[in-house]
Amino acid sequence: MAADPPRQALPPLRDVIAAHGLQASKALGQNFLLDEKLLDRIAAIPGPLRGAHAFEVGPGPGGLTRAILRAGAHLVAVERDERCLPALAELDRAFPGQLRVISGDAMKVDARAEAGDGAHIIANLPYNVGTALLVGWLSAPWEPLPWWSSLTLMFQHEVAERIVAAPGTDHYGRLAVLAQWRGEARIAMKVHRSAFTPPPKVMSAVVHITPRPAPDDVALIHLERLTAAAFGQRRKMLRQSLKGLPGALPALDQAGIDPTRRAETLTVAEFVTLARIMGARIMGQAQS
Ligand SMILES: C[S@@+](CC[C@H](N)C(=O)[O-])C[C@H]1O[C@@H](n2cnc3c(N)ncnc32)[C@H](O)[C@@H]1O
């Protein structure tokens, strides 16, 4: 379906940055994307957005914001840098009724309350809070799905690799287990550093995550404790790294997992099985 034209012609993003004096701030992780074709491709990753709700962190001068609005979404965008607000107000006028901008820190905003259930989260994330925001969205209650429909998020390439990593690879760790327990995670697009203004030191990638229904008998807390202990000493055998975690060694035995294996060799399904057994044992002890 063709993209919605804005009600009034939009100036090129480079001119928006110049007109509003938006010198990029390193402290705010500002690396802007100005190529509108690239931005339209990113906004297309979640699938058709016409009439959908979307939530964006860090719209900045509004490049990705425009693309999401052109795709027909109703968007709530949270921006910490007040210098960007006039540029975003221009977008509000160009796409009337589609955009609501919240001036503030995304770490303190209740995204679910602001964007509503079913929203697609789409963002070129500031690198300093990107992982914390992701973990927050992945840790949201699953009932049996989370409140959001999908996550389309730009990270530094190394972080993207940690999210999608397979067992037995160097990047496999807590983030991979959490993301892949909760959803289907894939790298949807690699983005060269030269696409950004100013260019960051490293390459970037867009990760797309769609949620899968959570097994209702595994509590996040058990999976977190397990992966923290196991990957805290990732080169050690599980019988060593899990020694201090109550219930973990009997759970290994019950699951038939060789205690001489190392954390990085366990599949996400094996971690989930262990967490389920640990949780059941703790519940059983509490009831006896
Ligand atoms: C990588 S830039 C992306 C800008 C724009 N979306 C783009 O793609 O060109 C990150 C943006 O997040 C904003 N930001 C940084 N920390 C933030 C926070 N805690 N809450 C909300 N926005 C934040 C920055 O001001 C900046 O506009």
UniProtKB/TrEMBL annotation:
> Per the UniProt record, which EC number(s) apply here?
2.1.1.182
| Transferase listed as a keyword | yes
One family from Pfam that matches here is RrnaAD
Write down the top EC class of this protein: transferase
What positions does the entry give for S-adenosyl-L-methionine binding? 31, 33, 58, 79, 105, 124
Say which family it is in. Belongs to the class I-like SAM-binding methyltransferase superfamily. rRNA adenine N(6)-methyltransferase family. RsmA subfamily.
Compartments in which it is found: Cytoplasm
The reply to whether rRNA processing figures as a keyword in the UniProt entry is: yes
> Which coarse location class describes where this protein primarily resides?
cytoplasm
Task of the protein: Specifically dimethylates two adjacent adenosines (A1518 and A1519) in the loop of a conserved hairpin near the 3'-end of 16S rRNA in the 30S particle. May play a critical role in biogenesis of 30S subunits.
Catalytic activity reads: adenosine(1518)/adenosine(1519) in 16S rRNA + 4 S-adenosyl-L-methionine = N(6)-dimethyladenosine(1518)/N(6)-dimethyladenosine(1519) in 16S rRNA + 4 S-adenosyl-L-homocysteine + 4 H(+)
Query: What InterPro entries would the database entry show?
Result: KsgA/Erm (IPR001737), rRNA_Ade_diMease-like_C (IPR023165), rRNA_Ade_Mease_Trfase_CS (IPR020596), rRNA_Ade_methylase_Trfase_N (IPR020598), rRNA_adenine_dimethylase (IPR011530), SAM-dependent_MTases_sf (IPR029063)
Question: What cellular component terms from Gene Ontology apply here?
Answer: cytosol
Domain annotation Ribosomal RNA adenine methylase transferase N-terminal: ranges: 38-213
Q: Which UniProt keywords apply?
A: Cytoplasm, Methyltransferase, RNA-binding, rRNA processing, S-adenosyl-L-methionine, Transferase
The name of this protein is: Ribosomal RNA small subunit methyltransferase A
Q: Name one GO molecular function term.
A: RNA binding
Q: Which residues form a coiled coil?
A: none
